[in-house]
Amino acid sequence: MPYVNAAGAGTSPTLSRIPQSPRWKRSIAWIVLVAEVNVDITERKQAAEALRQQAEELRTINDELNRFNQVAVDREMRMIELKRAVNELCGKLGEPPRHRLAEDETAPPASTEA
User: Are 37 and 31 in contact (CB under 8 A)?
Assistant: First the structure.
């Protein structure tokens, strides 16, 4: 594959180190160089595909963890609401609160033993 540089001289960019005679040696060298490039490109594509797959797996795992976190936080918030409601009902009945909540750390929970 001839290449013409700025001065107009015909050279081959990848074969410039190879002696220009005989022609069959240049052809064999060119085939070897092309084969080496193909292997290198194949390895890069395989590495890029592996990285893409790993990134997709990590995205999936992260999405699952975010969903689980949201469910867990929602459940905890609901449990706090229910404990408040139980404590309010206990107060209306004249009983001590059954659950200690973070906002009222000073009040110990009532014993649930019967």
Answer: no
Q: What is the DSSP code (8-state) at residue 107? A: S
The pTM of this model reads: 0.47
* Half-sphere exposure (Cβ direction) of 78: Cα atoms closer than 13 Å: 6
Q: What does the pLDDT look like over 90-101, one tens digit per residue?
A: 999 999 999 998
- 96 vs 14, 53, 107, 112, CA distance in Å? 89, 57, 9, 11
Would you give the DSSP letter of residue 101?
-
**Helix/strand/coil (H, E, C) string of 9-30?**
CEECCCCCCCCCCCHHHHHHHH
- Decide if 61 contacts 75 (C-beta within 8 A): no
